[in-house]
Amino acid sequence: MTALPRTAIATQTILALESPDLGNRSYIVNDGRRAAVVDPPRDFDRVLALCARHGLSIDWVVETHIHNDYVSGGLHLARTVGARYGISAAETVDYPRVALRDDSVLSVGDIELHVHPTPGHTFGHIAFSVSVEGRTTGLLSGGSLLFGAVGRTDLCGAEHTRRLTALQHETAHRLVRELPADVALHPTHGFGSGCAVGRVGNWTSGTLADEARRNPACVAASAEEFAERLLTNLYRPPRSYARIGPLNRAACAPIDLSPPQMASAEQMRDYALRGAWVVDVRDRWMFTSGHIPRSINVPLQRGFSEWLGRVVPAEARIALVADDRAQLEQAQRALARLGIDRPVVATILTMGATSARGLQQQRMASFADLAAELRRGARPVIVDVRRPDETQYAHIEGAILMPL
Fold first, then answer.
1. What pLDDT shows up at residue 395?
2. Roughly how many angstroms between the first and final C-alpha of the chain, as a whole number?
């Protein structure tokens, strides 16, 4: 996964590290020497590499909330570098941490991070404003205020969803009211993450002034109107969320990225027959040209982890199919971020190998093909498995809407 470009704000720097499969960003706030890492990924070797590239020493590792969409690397990153590990005092975890409150101020070289309680995504959610020489220049907002959206409010159980929705509305208004309008926003979620809801655009940057003009929480006529719209669009979260939250409250094992056992395509068929979930991460064109029977295709692209978390049960034994070693390594990292430590086996299927004996093929149809079939009088059953926030903008008339 790639690191986003260095983004200078006033006299300090915020480096963003993207995990496209999750639709998330992690951040390294620094003064050119000392750094704080916000919402780090489980594969924190990427954080260490970026810090080494910029000559940074890590003083703090902090979380905006206990994550449900990915396993955090925060605890083990802090232990590896000897940094302090900060989590909201309102959260219960099974390991030592620095309990952060609304009066907490973290010193990172010449920078200060001020803690703001921002309940809504979760009850214990916090955000961090970045201050340089007394001037607030950035806000690390986690899953509270996002670009044209907010964090989902149903992660603490259905009985708390309405209360958290009201708190999310209050949080958004308080942030845009109390912090300077030109403060740059740096959310963790909102780049394809299943933790974002109510999206009204595809922005990837902006300020608090921008959100005051466009964010659904800020422009709704009332808290009631906001709640009605958000709850209408609150599609079911991936099944993996129920497992990942508890992993982040416990001392989850360090990541293991050692290469998996390799197998042939013929052996992979046997694994599938014995109950393994064979997950083919190649693009759909390669998959349809030749794939292992009983395998499922989840292309390794933006949103991969959310879709895998929707369809694969927590107890599944996963076998991976990739088109080369680099893609296999990326897929293994993506699985680890979901708390799936080891694929039981893996294989490489290149385009040239898709004619191997025993592989199945499928025809890939286009919308033009479908239109031609309809004109000829065919009546195919069309099933649209996209999320409600996707189908509300456009879908084929008469399609059965059945979100995964």
1. 85
2. 26
